[in-house]
UniProtKB/TrEMBL annotation:
Keyword Transferase assigned: yes
Pathway, per record: Purine metabolism; IMP biosynthesis via de novo pathway; N(2)-formyl-N(1)-(5-phospho-D-ribosyl)glycinamide from N(1)-(5-phospho-D-ribosyl)glycinamide (10-formyl THF route): step 1/1
A GO molecular function held by the record: phosphoribosylglycinamide formyltransferase activity
GO biological process: 'de novo' IMP biosynthetic process
InterPro entries cross-referenced by the UniProt entry: Formyl_transf_N, Formyl_transf_N_sf, GART, GART_AS
Lineage summary: Eukaryota, Viridiplantae, Streptophyta, Embryophyta, Tracheophyta
Family in the record: Belongs to the GART family.
Keyword terms of this UniProt record: Chloroplast, Plastid, Purine biosynthesis, Transferase, Transit peptide
Coiled coil: none
Alphabetized SUPFAM superfamilies for the sequence: Formyltransferase
Keyword Oxidoreductase: no
Name this polypeptide is given: Phosphoribosylglycinamide formyltransferase, chloroplastic
Major localization class: plastid
Signal peptide: none
Length: 300
């Protein structure tokens, strides 16, 4: 294993990370069939007919009687997916990284139009980091702590991800709060997965088995994973996708966790596939929706 200096360890010989002034752009969805009106920092898409939004799990339909206004992110890279350029992904983990492995395998198989170019972790010896090194994925340590004295500071982390030309950041069991510098550098480009139906059983202190124990103790009949965009706080960013699993009367926390984790692997891969294909559409009230790959008039 070779060292790239403070905060880096990998089995590949890679260039030294230096700070850059690369600019980032918000991304425009791949569809362009509706009328677009430019605003100061985005494109506003207004349909002529009402749209029906379908809940991916509960099949609820929310209908508008006078048309729906949707805000789509603007990008200088608009047709990347169309021209075959894969999105570059950085995955953050603190443990075994089973969601990280699922995403990486989907990228290799081609079901996700992306490439994992870096693994960021606060524990250099965790299972996710071992998997990354075994698959020639660079490992970046963050943050710098007594346990990880070679970890990066926040500004250095941003510079490192810019160097890897990262498009999207995916948190997959990363237990540290994301620094404001990173959120500002990657607006609407950081996803997290949480093992409950947010906003229930979320926030600081709710992670891992603690979540499932709390769900069972509450008497809730349903649980499941939530994928959401990341803001400055724990588990409060805009929800992108959810999937429901039953909580059985005889469930232990371990049994419920296994059932939820299976759904996490499926749902996260689907969400990452959508974001890499630029099928995330932002409604005017700030709600992100996933555009159906089969029918551009359907959203979930």
């Amino acid at each position: 294993m070779q060292s790239l200096g403070p905060g880096f360890c990998t089995s590949l010989k890679l260039p030294v990370i230096r700070n850059t002034q690369d600019s980032l752009f918000l991304r425009r969805p791949s569809f362009c069939s509706h009328s677009l009106a430019r605003t100061s920092d985005c494109l506003s898409l207004r349909t002529q007919n009402p749209l029906a939004f379908r809940g991916s799990c509960l099949n609820n339909r929310l209908e508008s009687g006078s048309g729906v206004a949707i805000v789509a992110s603007l990008s200088s890279e608009g047709e990347d997916a169309k021209h075959g350029v894969k999105k570059k992904l950085a995955v953050f983990v603190s443990g075994g990284g089973s969601n990280f492995q699922s995403i990486h395998e989907a990228c290799v198989a081609g079901s996700v139009h992306g490439e994992v170019v870096a693994l960021v972790t606060n524990k250099g010896g965790c299972g996710g980091a071992v998997y990354a090194r075994d698959n020639d994925i660079p490992v970046v340590l963050f943050p710098r702590t007594k346990e990880e004295p070679n970890g990066l500071f926040a500004s250095d982390l941003v510079a490192a991800l810019r160097r890897y030309e990262v498009d999207f950041i995916l948190l997959a069991g990363y237990l540290k709060l994301i620094p404001v510098e990173l959120i500002q550098a990657y607006p609407k480009s950081i996803l997290n997965i949480h093992p409950s139906l947010l906003p229930a059983f979320g926030g600081k202190g709710y992670f891992g088995m603690k979540v499932h124990k709390a769900v069972i103790a509450s008497g809730a009949r349903y649980s499941g994973p939530t994928i959401h965009f990341v803001d400055e706080h724990y588990d409060t960013g805009r929800i992108l996708a959810q999937s429901v699993v039953p909580v059985l009367a005889s469930d232990t926390a371990e049994e419920l966790a296994a059932r939820v984790l299976k759904e996490e692997h499926r749902l996260y891969v689907e969400a990452v596939a959508a974001i890499c294909q630029e099928r995330i559409v932002w409604r005017e009230d700030g709600i992100p929706l996933i555009q159906s790959i089969d029918n551009p008039n359907l959203y979930s």
